[in-house]
Amino acid sequence: MEELNRRMEADRKLVEERLGSWFAQGPRYAGLMEAMEYSLLAGGKRIRPVLVLEVCRMCGGQVEQALDFACGVEMVHTYSLIHDDLPAMDDDDLRRGRPTNHKVYGEATAILAGDGLLTEAFSALAGAKLPPERIARAVACLAHEAGALGMVGGQTLDMAGEGRALTRGELEEVQSLKTGALIAAAARLGCIAAGGTEEQERAVEQYARCLGRAFQIQDDILDVTSTDGELGKPVGSDLAREKATFVSVLGLEESRRLVRELSDQAQEALAPFQNSEFLLWLADELAQRTH
Hints:
By secondary structure, the chain is mostly helical. It is built from 16 helices and two strands. It has helices at about 1-20, 30-40, 45-60, 65-85, 100-105, 105-125, 130-145, 150-160, 170-180, 180-195, 200-225, 230, 235-240, 245-250, 250-270, 275-290; strands at about 95, 100. Strands 1-2 form a two-stranded antiparallel ribbon. Helix 4 runs antiparallel to helix 6 and helix 11 (about 200-225) packs parallel to helix 16. The longest helix is centred in the C-terminal third of the chain and has 28 residues, at about 200-225. The radius of gyration is 18 Å and the shape is globular.
C-alpha cells in the first residue's frame, strides 16, 4: 500500500510540474492567466489526471505519453469548477480551502478564465507527441464527454432539478453525466494514449463509470458528515439549495452500501488486465475517503 501511495504522489508531481509550467511563457492579459493559474494550481486530489496516467500504464504505455492528455482533462475539470461556483450556478464562496475564483478576480474574469482553460485543454491534446489517429480519437472523446451530451448536460439537469424531488433514476442520470462523464473520459484517454484496443477501452470505461458514481455518492455522504475545514468547501450547501442528493433520496446507510457495491463493480471491470493493482487500490481509497 505504501508503494501505491508513493506512485500516486509521483503521478501527481508529474502533473503539477507540467501544469505549473503551462502558462509560464507567452503574454499575460489583464490578470487572465493569473486567474486561470489560481484555480488550476490550487492542488486537489488530481484523480482525473492520475487516472489518465495509470490507465495508460496498465494498457502497456508509458505515463509520459499520456501527460498532455492528463493535463487537458484537469484543465476541463478546473474550468467546470470555476463556472459551477459562479453566482448564476452554485454560488459558492470557498473551493479547496480558498476563496472561489470569482470572489478573487470578479465574475467576468472568472468566466473568461474558465473559457480559457476549456479551450487550452484541447490545445494540450492536439499538441501531444502521439500518432495523429490517437490524438483525433482523444479530442473526439473529450469533446463528447465534456460537452452537452456529457458533463455540461449533467450540470444543466442538476440545475433544473433544484427545488424539486428527483427519483433515483433521475439522480443517477444527472450524476452519471455531471461527474461520471469526465472520469470516464480520463480512463478512455489513458487507454487511447497507450494505443489500447477497443476491448480495453470499453473495460476501463466501465471501471471509470462505476468509480465516478461511487465518487459522487461519497461526495454526497461527506456533504452531511464532514466539515468545511475537512472538505475545503462549504458542507450542507446541497441541502441549503434544496438539491436532491443520494443521501436525501436513499438515506445515509443505503448510500454507503451503494458506494461499496459500485466500487466492487469497478474492480470487477478490470478482470481482463494483468497489472491492475493500482486502479484496484484507487477504487478502495476513493470509497473510504473522508475529504
